[in-house]
Amino acid sequence: MRILKVIGKAARFMPGAGMLALTHAQYEARLHALMPAGKNEYIIKQPVEFKCGEVLGFTGEISKALLEITEEPRYIPQPVAQAVTEKTVEKEDVGINPIADFKEKKHHAKR
């Protein structure tokens, strides 16, 4: 699962492109175009768009066009973190920082 943040005007995902991991609010806004496939995972059955700033999980081939309008976020909001990862995020946390988590794990592995 790759976590993406839309940085262009909008990102469009077409049927058959892959699966999405979304928050409940993101799913409700697009339920006509998605089919549940697991916990917080959805199959795209109609074209679906996400506006600039939205963060989502995506399993599938990333096209060159999609690469140009998305990036890996430095910060993942708590609801999205809960939707796209199996980690339990404490209520006091406002989110997770995947870059800091990666650096910490790498540092501990060197010891």
Overview of the molecule:
- The longest helix is centred in the C-terminal third of the chain and has 13 residues, at 98-110.
- The model is unreliable at 87-96 (pLDDT under 50).
- The strands form three sheets. The protein has a six-stranded antiparallel β-sheet.
- The chain has helices spanning 24-29, 64-69, 78-84, 98-110; strands spanning 2-6, 10-13, 18-21, 34-38, 41-44, 48-51, 55-60, 70-71, 76-77, 95-96.
- With 111 residues, the chain is an alpha+beta fold.
- The protein has four helices and ten strands; from the N terminus they run βββαββββαββαβα.
- The chain is globular.
- A hairpin with a 2-residue loop joins strand 4 and strand 5 (41-44).
Question: Summed up, what is this model?
Answer:
The protein is of the alpha+beta class and 111 residues long.
Explain the layout of strands and helices.
Elements: E1 2-6, E2 10-13, E3 18-21, H1 24-29, E4 34-38, E5 41-44, E6 48-51, E7 55-60, H2 64-69, E8 70-71, E9 76-77, H3 78-84, E10 95-96, H4 98-110
Antiparallel strand pairs: 1-7, 1-8, 2-6, 3-5, 3-7, 4-5, 9-10
Strand order of the largest sheet: 4-5-3-7-1-8
Radius of gyration: 15 Å
Unreliable stretches covering 5 or more consecutive residues: 87-96
Distance linking N and C termini: 29 Å
- Kindly report the average pLDDT value: 79
Strand content: 25-35%
